[in-house]
Amino acid sequence: MPALTQLVAQLPATLPAAVLVVQHLAPDSSGEHLVSRLSMHTQMRCHLAAHHDQIEAGHLYLAPADRHLLVHDGQLIVTKGPRENNFRPAIDALFRAAAVTYGNAVIGVVLTGMLHDGTAGLDFIKRCGGQAIVQDPEDAEFSSMPYTALRNVAVDHVVPLSHIGALLQELTSQAPPPPTPIPEDLKAEAAIAERVVGSTEDIDAIGERVPITCPDCGGALWKLEQGNVMRFRCHTGHSYTADALFESSKQALEETLWVALRMMEERKNLLSSMAVRGEGLWSVQQEERLEAIKAHINRLREFLLNGSTGATTASEQEQD
């Protein structure tokens, strides 16, 4: 929010464009409170986005908590569709809808933030002829989102936060270049997002089914390779960049291993009781089983406490 308020303070009420904002919010966040806070820092008229609101230049629209913000034919579309990159609202969902609807008249801006949302969306905008702006990672409080965008997208402008407002005023005062054809796969995805859920036939037309399941619903995933960012989506509507899918599967694996550790601890306790109450050879066998499971527990606990961190560090080093 501090970065956003600093940016909107640079924008005048006469800006010849509308500003649509997605911020990752907790589902129970007060959107009205955030809009009021933004209004204190800018001359633009700020609103909490509402379904079927008309889009007007000089106005700012903030996506409500737990709702995607889309656009279509000059109107806002507010929907509780499936999460994208584990977020709702998702930056990618807004950028895709804007790119398909307004083509090269769209300017996408990614500010400070964590994880990967917004990277594929900037690629959508570029594929439709629009422009991409990324806050300089060295200037960002959280550099993950800017860095990821720069690694994957041919960004037009990388500037400090304090310069973005002037850049937006300059770019919106210029006539857009000749229209660029809108890719058919993006049209199809935007249509699916508007009606919330698609079909297997819809996704077959734009992607290739792969032997990976959706972390959110357990359904099949399709790989989408158009553009510069590899992505995956299920016909329910959940969508992921490859990075986001890897992160989701890693979290699911860790949760499964903690459950396995808990079950092994319970088995150890049962074997311990059996060994104490038994006699002779039978008791010795339980002691041997008990020692074996203790060794497994120690290895698994060591991996969870140390190995997963090491794996993450190695992955990050590989990406760098």
UniProtKB/TrEMBL annotation:
Cross-referenced Gene3D superfamilies: Methylesterase CheB, C-terminal domain
Keyword Hydrolase assigned: yes
PANTHER family in alphabetical order: PROTEIN-GLUTAMATE METHYLESTERASE/PROTEIN-GLUTAMINE GLUTAMINASE (PTHR42872), PROTEIN-GLUTAMATE METHYLESTERASE_PROTEIN-GLUTAMINE GLUTAMINASE (PTHR42872:SF6)
Reactions performed catalytically: [protein]-L-glutamate 5-O-methyl ester + H2O = L-glutamyl-[protein] + methanol + H(+)
UniProt source species: Hymenobacter tibetensis
Record carries keyword Transmembrane helix: no
InterPro entries in alphabetical order: CheB_C, Chemotax_prot-Glu_Me-esterase, Sig_transdc_resp-reg_Me-estase
Enzyme Commission code: 3.1.1.61
Signal peptide stretch: none
Name listed for the protein in its UniProt record: protein-glutamate methylesterase
Pfam short name (any one): CheB_methylest
SUPFAM superfamilies per UniProt: Methylesterase CheB, C-terminal domain
Domain CheB-type methylesterase: 1-175
Main enzyme class: hydrolase
PROSITE patterns from the UniProt entry: CHEB
Lineage: Bacteria, Pseudomonadati, Bacteroidota, Cytophagia, Cytophagales
Keywords: Hydrolase
